[in-house]
Specification:
The chain is an alpha/beta fold and 328 residues long. The chain has two domains: 161 residues, no CATH class; 145 residues, no CATH class. Helix content is 62%, strand content 6%. The protein has 16 helices and four strands. A four-stranded mixed sheet has the order 1-2-4-3, sandwiched between helices. A hairpin with a 2-residue loop joins β3 and β4.
Length: 328
């Protein structure tokens, strides 16, 4: 099977992420090229609506939240390079705030998403939102109007230069690090699992200064400025995490207790395992090797996993993460 790493240059996730990092109190999560512009970009009224009323915030753990999925991940996953078509995705969500409302409209996406989790399971993420369905629809209507205003007033002009920069970074990444290597087969060999998707989609981000964030299924967002070597490292790492965390593993009987009661532990262990094993993937395919800076974000989990692998190097991935969870 021929699978590729594709780059997508999407205005909607970049627009929303520009808003999200405007709410960060420190500058560490922001692209420094904008300086204090983040603090001045939104009016107090806009900030109040976005951050206090509709609760647009990044998750504090590797596990996502219902509001983050609804306001950022889902519309970004279904978005295109056409901003107007992307706004239409949000308008569909406003009419019926469920992922199933989008998969009904875009059935070609349902098959890919279902390889990650069932549509029904993903819709359940919204059950505990602090809004009635009627209130949520009204808030989403206001959200779309505000996004359109921000796009027309300022971000449309910003995007012209941002897109050029994203395309340039993607081209250099492909040429220097990614071309001619089969990272998918390497992760399959190491994990004993099958990468479930047809391709892997890299959505470049301009505003954020963090490793990246998943959208759904095969599509992830990544910072696309700064060190190309670090971006490359995280892309290969995330192909691994998407090989491990998929419908077949999340519904496997061995992980049923972990998924039900310790999902954040499972996701952190998944990140730690893939950070540790990325070096092995790079060596296996003969790709450029890089510094493993990702593991420091999961130091305790990495220590536990490596200690288990030292004693049981052939342990299956299901059993490894179960054993590691008991030691957390």
């Amino acid at each position: 099977m021929s699978r590729e790493i594709n780059f997508d240059f999407l205005p909607l996730p970049n627009l929303i992420m520009h808003i999200l990092v405007s709410n960060v109190e420190t500058t560490s999560n922001r692209n420094p090229k904008y300086g204090e512009q983040f603090d001045k970009w939104l009016s107090p009224k806009q900030r109040s609506f976005l951050f206090d009323e509709i609760l647009l915030k990044s998750p504090r753990t590797v596990e996502t939240t219902g509001t983050f999925a609804l306001l950022f991940q889902w519309p970004s996953y279904f978005s295109t390079e056409d901003i107007n078509l992307s706004f239409e995705v949000l308008e569909l969500l406003a009419k019926k705030p469920l992922l199933s409302s989008l998969t009904t409209e875009f059935p070609e996406k349902e098959a890919e998403i279902s390889k990650f989790l069932s549509i029904e399971s993903l819709d359940k993420m919204l059950v505990n939102l602090p809004f009635t369905n009627q209130k949520l629809s009204k808030l989403l209507d206001k959200y779309v109007v505000l996004l359109k205003e921000l796009w027309d007033e300022t971000y449309c002009d910003l995007w012209k230069e941002i897109k050029k920069s994203l395309i340039d970074s993607a081209s250099r990444l492909q040429e220097t690090y990614l071309k001619n290597f089969d990272f998918f087969s390497a992760w399959e060999e190491i994990t004993g699992l099958t990468y479930p998707y047809s391709n892997f989609s890299v959505v470049g981000l301009d505003s954020a200064n963090f490793l990246g964030t998943s959208l759904l299924a095969e599509r992830d967002c990544f910072r696309m400025w700064g060190s190309l070597e670090s971006i490359y490292r995280v892309i290969i790492h995330e192909i691994g995490t998407h090989t491990l965390i998929q419908n077949r593993t999340l519904t496997h009987e061995k992980w049923s207790d972990l998924v039900a009661t310790k999902i954040n532990n499972l996701l952190r262990l998944n990140e730690a395992y893939c950070a540790f094993k990325t070096d092995e993937v790079l060596k296996l395919v003969g790709a450029p090797e890089t510094d493993n800076f990702v593991s420091k974000h999961f130091s305790n989990e990495t220590r536990i996993i490596t200690s288990i692998l030292k004693d049981k190097p052939q342990i299956a991935i299901f059993d490894l993460l179960i054993a590691a969870n008991k030691l957390l």
